[in-house]
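Hey, quick one: can you model this chain's 3D structure?
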Amino acid sequence: MTWEDESYPDNLRQIYDPPLFLFTRGEFQAADRLAIAVVGTRSPSGYGRQMARILSEGLARYGVTIVSGLARGIDAEAHAGALRVGGRTVAVLGSGIDVVYPSEHHQLLMNIIQHGCVVSELPMGTGPDAENFPGRNRIISGLSLGVVVVEAAEKSGSLITTQYALDQGREVFAVPGPVSPRSRGTHQLLRQGATLAECSEDILNEAAPHAIAVVSAPGEPSLSGDEVRVYGAVDGTGTEVDRIIAATGLPARTVLDVLLRLELRGLVIQRPGKCFARPAARASSGADER
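Sure thing. Here's the predicted structure for all 290 residues.
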């Protein structure tokens, strides 16, 4: 597609140096204007993987498109998290769209094509050379309303993405981590004024508060605090309690207490095997079509 095409992403069109044309597999949708980038190290800790997964799943449940770069580590967890809960995701490549890098992400790339878009400004056949990635990073931030960094070393390429984000007027978020080389970059961002992100609501409150407001829209229950996070993690077909705990990042006891309150209000029902679902009438309402 070219810059003049109607299907060219609106967010990307607004940056100071948008690509004049893009190669794509899959398709962009109007809903992709509500997009957040999740990036970080290629060699994350177990904690980093978990946080990337929790944040991406949580954001996707609010209807947010997850943007990342298909790299090993945090990028892959971000894409997979969105797909796991039926969300949309966009992968921006530092190669031609016909070159799968890393090669073990072939199936992930095919899944992204089915539930989002794979995009590059580089011609077909272009290899994943190091000089291609800074330009790729400006597209990641340009497609998004904000950039979330989960584990990054002091000289991580993710920090290049955040600099592009700042230049483009996007929000920058950082996930705090343990004191280690993997967290030095994210802690540096926090010292420089990045917004601390512990859950998806921290991100949306700054970048897209209207996405959270749908939970309290007319005809929907009035929820607050932890109830928003737990209710947002429950779908109409049934969600196991362990997945609700993982998606919210809340302690197990807190999640169980909130689920009991929601059940007493008739907002969720419990099924065998500690599985919770929204009642059929509410699960099929407009709130879940966001």
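One thing worth noting: The first helix runs from residue 10 to 13.
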